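Lecture notes, unit on protein representations.

Consider one protein chain, 144 amino acids long.
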Amino acid sequence: MAVVTKSCIKVADEVWIAAALLHREQPAQPDFTVEEIVDRAMREGIAGPIRPGVYVHVVQHCVANRPPNPGRYRMLLETTNGRRRLFRKGDAYHPAREGAKTTPNMEDIPPGYHGLLAWYRELVLCRSQLCPRNRPSALAGWFG
């Protein structure tokens, strides 16, 4: 199995990780500003110094409910102008993004972030009514 190095992580995966970290660290916060996500990516330094593509991925390429230009990921959702959250199953999205990637592939991200994928899957299960009756308070901001 190949080990993912900092320099080869996809910008979209870096953006998803930054947004997921914010959601996990601030579970009561339903969404975040573009600047907060970019800042979290910069602080995390997954690929070293922040790459120029991070901002445009947060603004456009990863945003499910915006027309693809050219990136067509469905990793984030624009909740209101300038604010984003992680995309969830059932969210509306631009039809040209049908079938697009919604989360990183585990083999494409450094091992230290694999737990975020499990955490996200738990959120998706709970959102779809398949979770235990007593939802953990850490998931409170994800239920409306």
